[in-house]
Write a structure and sequence with these properties.
This protein is of the alpha+beta class. The chain has a domain of 91 residues: Glutaredoxin, CATH 3.40.30.10. Helices cover 45% and strands 26% of the residues. The chain is built from six helices and six strands, in the order H-H-E-H-H-E-E-E-H-E-E-H. The strands form two sheets. A four-stranded mixed sheet has the order 2-1-5-6, sandwiched between helices. Helix 1 packs parallel to helix 3 and helix 4 packs parallel to helix 6. The chain is globular and about 40 Å long.
């Protein structure tokens, strides 16, 4: 029962994000950032962890946060638990092991670990279109004021 409620909440939020211009593909986000000459608000998240759901909801529903992000950044939200199969599975070498990447979530998780040295969600990092970190990762507080203060800080 709870799982169905959470799943339906995610469906509504996911539809809203898609309609609001949030990109759900890392490489597409990089291309858009180059085209628009904007940095990227990169958000690694998930939809199966109840600790992340309030932040997902805050980022998607708060008008002040959305406007601040949309005016300054290309928004890229990557779900590390996305089970959508990759068109072509990939094999990567990480930490001395071969890793099979079969889903989008596997790929997004690999990018988070290999490029940004993190493996926790939520994880927000600000990058340019060349994948350089331009602002330290945001570590909280996961509140409206905390996020808005961080977004306005140089």
């Amino acid at each position: 029962m709870i799982y169905l409620i959470l799943l339906s909440m995610f469906s509504v939020i996911s539809t809203y994000w898609t309609e609001s211009g949030v990109v759900d593909d890392y490489y597409e986000g990089l291309a858009i950032a180059k085209e628009k000459d904007k940095p990227i608000f990169l958000f690694f998240t998930g939809n199966e962890c109840e600790n992340i759901l309030p932040l997902n909801k805050l980022l998607s529903e708060d008008d002040d946060i959305r406007r601040s992000i949309e005016s300054q950044y290309v928004s890229v939200y990557l779900y590390v638990d996305d089970r959508t199969p990759l068109a072509t599975p990939e094999v990567v070498y990480r930490n001395g092991k071969l890793i099979n990447l079969r889903t989008k979530g596997n790929l997004w998780g690999h990018i988070e670990i290999s490029k940004y040295s993190s493996r926790s969600q939520p994880y927000i990092v600000f990058i340019d279109a060349d994948e350089n970190i331009i602002k330290p990762a945001y570590a909280g507080p996961w509140t409206k004021d905390g996020i808005l203060n961080y977004l306005s800080a140089q």
